[in-house]
């Protein structure tokens, strides 16, 4: 297994397959619940996470070609929080950890199914930049929804403009930290997988 290929994210372990598909089933159930209750924003997020996780298996027509269940779980952390603890809004930390993990899935899919090829350092940078960009897009989405429908996702009337801006800046800091941590964990994971595979190959050869 090459240390430079993001395809090392994929695994065909039976336990991993069962756990990853179980999580995706939970995402689908949560998305359906969101549609029925009118919470379309998080329903769409749950569907996107599930689709990103199952795309390799669907494209390869092999249900065992799934990302590690740990990465799938992190990517769906807000979804799991809503399903298990009935949280209406996840914390910013959980949200940006999930975005960072979701960026790992996107990086893997880009590497596998497009002409884009990434080595591990670039993938780490991709995760950090993607997480920051998503944080900015998420802030704009909340602002537009508040202006259009009178909600308080971002523009809370109980807070001053300075407090709203300060909170938003801290969200960006949290997104950057979450992206960096996820990228470093990803690098460690790939290198650990490569080391294990090398030992197995040597053992089999011996």
Largest sheet: none
| Cα distance spanning the termini | 18 Å
Counting H and I runs of at least 4 residues, what is the number of helices? Answer: 7
Global geometry: globular
Number of strands: 0
What does this structure look like?
Helices cover 77% and strands 0% of the residues. With 206 residues, the chain is mainly α. The protein has one domain (6-205). 32% of the residues are buried.
Architecture blueprint of SSEs:
Blueprint: H1 14-37, H2 40-60, H3 69-75, H4 77-85, H5 92-113, H6 120-149, H7 161-205
Helix pairs in contact: 1-2, 1-3, 1-4, 2-5, 3-5, 5-6, 5-7, 6-7
Defining traits:
single chain, 206 residues, mainly alpha, 0% strand, globular, disordered C terminus
Sum this structure up briefly:
This protein has 206 residues and is mostly helical.
């Amino acid at each position: 297994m090459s240390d430079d290929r993001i395809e090392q994210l994929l695994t065909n372990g039976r336990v991993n397959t069962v756990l990853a598909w179980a999580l995706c089933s939970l995402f689908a159930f949560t998305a359906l619940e969101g549609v029925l209750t009118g919470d379309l924003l998080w329903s769409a997020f749950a569907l996107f996470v599930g689709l990103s996780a199952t795309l390799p298996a669907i494209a390869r027509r092999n249900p065992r070609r799934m990302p590690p269940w740990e990465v799938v779980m992190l990517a769906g952390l807000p979804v799991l929080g809503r399903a298990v603890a009935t949280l209406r809004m996840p914390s910013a930390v959980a949200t940006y950890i999930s975005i960072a993990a979701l960026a790992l899935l996107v990086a893997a899919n880009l590497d596998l199914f497009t002409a884009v090829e990434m080595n591990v350092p670039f993938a780490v940078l991709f995760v950090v930049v993607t997480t920051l960009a998503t944080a900015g897009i998420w802030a704009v989405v909340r602002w537009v929804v508040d202006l259009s429908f009178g909600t308080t996702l971002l523009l809370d009337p109980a807070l001053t403009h300075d407090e709203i801006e300060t909170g938003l800046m801290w969200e960006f800091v949290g997104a950057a930290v979450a992206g960096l941590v996820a990228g470093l964990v990803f690098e460690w994971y790939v290198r650990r997988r490569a080391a294990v595979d090398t030992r197995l190959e040597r053992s089999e050869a011996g």
